Amino acid sequence: MKQIAIYGKGGIGKSSISSNLSVNLASEGFEVLLIGCDPKSDSTINLFGGRRIDTVLDLYKKGITDPDKLIYEGYNGVKGVEVGGPAAGVGCAGRGILVALKTLNKDYYLEKGFDIIIYDVPGDVVCGGFAGPAREGYADEIYIVTSGEYLSVYAANNIAKGLFNLNVKMGGIIGNMRGIPSEEQKIKSYSEEIGSQLINAVERNPKIYESEIEGKTVLEKYPDDPLNLKFKDIGNKIINNKKAKVPNPTTDEKIRSIIGGFY
Amino acid sequence: MNILTPRPNPIVAALYTLRDLDVDVAVLHGPSGCGFRAARLLEEDGMKVVTTSMSEEDLIFGASDKLIEVLHEVDELFSPKTIGVVGSCVSMIIGENVKKAIVDSGLKDKAFFVEIHGCMGANTRGAIETLKAAMEFGLINENEFKRQEEMLLLATEVESNSGMAKSKYTRPSRGTELKVVADHIVNLLKENKRIAVILNAKKETAYLFADIPLAINLASKKYGGSVINVGNLSTDVGLLRIKRYAEDIKNNFGSNGITIDYISGGMDEYPIAGKNAIEYLKDKDFDLLVAVGIPQALPIIDKESIAVTNGPREVHPLEDRGYKYVTVEIASHSTVMGTREIVLSELGEAIRNAAGIQ
After folding, report:
1. The predicted structure's pLDDT at residue B2
2. Which stretches make up the Nitrogenase/oxidoreductase component domain (chain B) (predicted)?
């Protein structure tokens, strides 16, 4: 079993990548569990036709802590979990993640025979709780989603700093492109700059958001679209990835020169 | 039910349990004042307790480096064999990765982490988490863990069925005046009556509570009457340190010529030892029962009874259980720390005064 966590700048497409990755891995025969760690609870929404499942923390409040009752089966047999958390502006979402992950736990995943656990983590690493999925016993390696835009790479680098400080391994970078010039090369150069690798880069494609409007992944709405092959490729590379290592974050100047260098 | 009465705290329970395990140093990863009253008492009992003295700044930026530094400092200052690191509300809310800090400090062979904070329910949860961490660290075996876990869960049940967790708010009380209770006991002995004394004490508090059976036995020697002595003084059950307490008290009784008629269990078995004691006394003939320590763990019997507790908030629940008198040993905790022999109790002194013994 492999456990991975997906980090990246807010709004960069972590949930789109995670859900499309999950359903394509499932169609390759893997048992997949997607754990959405955002208190907004929108990571798994495309597995359930737009329906929001009950969150671990809502159920926890009602005294329900049996992992079997916290996990839902979505499209293509992918299992989905939403950690949930407090409403915006109150409580402590970070603590919520720690409590929810402890309630679920690795022994249970092993017992259920999952091949891959994917944690979809909100935004950058903002507090100790949000780094929870990156801790020992949780994700074995981290993937960062970024576009080739400066702020997105800057956020990725900030996450890489967190991983460096926490001594956590990074599996690579997944590009989610916005359509700027030489974008894939920019992301690739940045990946190499921090001693990591570009797993693959997904082009901007209206089929992704067309599917999302219906609460679906691309595989469900456009099963024959070649985009699915890209997600399968990313999935297989992650499953077989043996090159995870702690990244060496770079400087702001270096990022600017890498990104600027391709114009 | 949301209980309003302030109650014992899981962090403090974790610290006490580390002491029971003969851990040399407890490092509380939290504010300098967290559990400080308990920490001071525990230091008198030989275990070092330090904190990482977390500040506002640490809440914002995290304090793992500080924890590592403190671990190095205590290692140098006290050369401990074992160190227990205990969580606190703040360090756990901000998500401090204590396990990693221990590994990074290079002290993982002597330090282990007890993942606990103040909002985790009954205080016994702190004790259970500590024992579990100690088991994983190799200080105790699984059987001992399971036995103690069962006891602690039963203790929690006792508190919610018959102790201060029974109602929403429990007023503290000092109960009946000590002199009234002492006179009553001595008068019965003068009338040649038979008194059964059950010592059902929790761990080190027995050093104080044992003084009451001791005083009653001395008064009986002077004035007559007779005493049945029952106590949870088994030297076969529990952690080394706890068995040592039982040994000490038995020796004190022995040197005062007192025989224990029945051993009702070990010193951490107070949730069940009370039942054993009452079962033993079922067909015995006596005129008064004096239950000291954790009387709330005793089944109710149809006999004139006196309860002696150390919790002012246990008084009303005990009165509800039908005890004729309930009285409180108010100073119990501070006096027993670091002792190896029975210490004077307030009721014991009152009995000695009433009986004219010095």
Report:
1. 84
2. 16-137
pLDDT over 70 at B209, yes or no: yes
Q: Across the interface, do B95 and A136 touch by the CB < 8 Å criterion? A: no
Alpha helices, DSSP H, located in A34-182: 56-61, 93-104, 106-112, 150-166
What domains appear along chain A, each with residue ranges and CATH number? 2-144+206-244 (3.40.50.300)
Distance between CA B54 and CA B91 in Å, rounded? 8
Cα gap A121→A88, rounded to integer Å: 16
* Structure confidence at residue B165 (pLDDT): 83
| Catalytic machinery residues of A | 9, 14, 40, 124
Lowest mean pLDDT among A81-95, B214-228, B231-245: A81-95
- First-last CA distance in chain B: 49
From chain B, the residues in CB contact with A127 under 8 A are 94-95
Q: What is the pLDDT of residue A40?
A: 87
For this complex, say whether ipTM is above 0.90.
no
A174 bridge partner residues = A145, A200
- Opening angle at CA B49, ends B48 and B50, nearest 5: 120
* CA-based nearest distance A129→chain B, Å: 5
Residue with tokens 């109150």: A90
Rounded-to-integer distance, Cα A201 and Cα A165, Å: 27
Structural domains present in chain B: 10-162 (3.40.50.1980), 178-355 (3.40.50)
Partner-chain contact A128 B94, CB within 8 Å: yes
SS3 category, A82: strand
Identify the three-state secondary structure at position A168.
coil
Residue of chain A with shortest Cα separation from B65? A165
Closest-approach residue (CA) in chain B for A102: B115
Would you call A127 and B94 a contact, using CB atoms and an 8 Å cutoff? yes
d(CA B187, CA B203): 31
A48 with A75: CB under 8 angstroms? yes
Whether pLDDT at B214 is above 60: yes
Cβ-defined contact of A94 to B94 (cutoff 8 Å): yes
- Contact residues, chain B to chain A, C-beta under 8 Å: 62, 92-97, 99-100
Beta-strand pair A79-82/A72-73: antiparallel
Q: CB count, 10 Å around CB of B151?
A: 23
Separation in Å, CA of B96 to nearest CA in chain A: 6
The token pair at A21 is: 């990755």
Cα A243 to chain centroid distance, Å, stands at 18
Cβ–Cβ of B95/A166 closer than 8 Å? no
Chain A residues inside the 8 Å CB shell of B96: 128
How far apart are the C-alpha atoms of B91 and A43, rounded to whole Å? 28
Q: Which residue of B has its CA nearest to A95?
A: B93
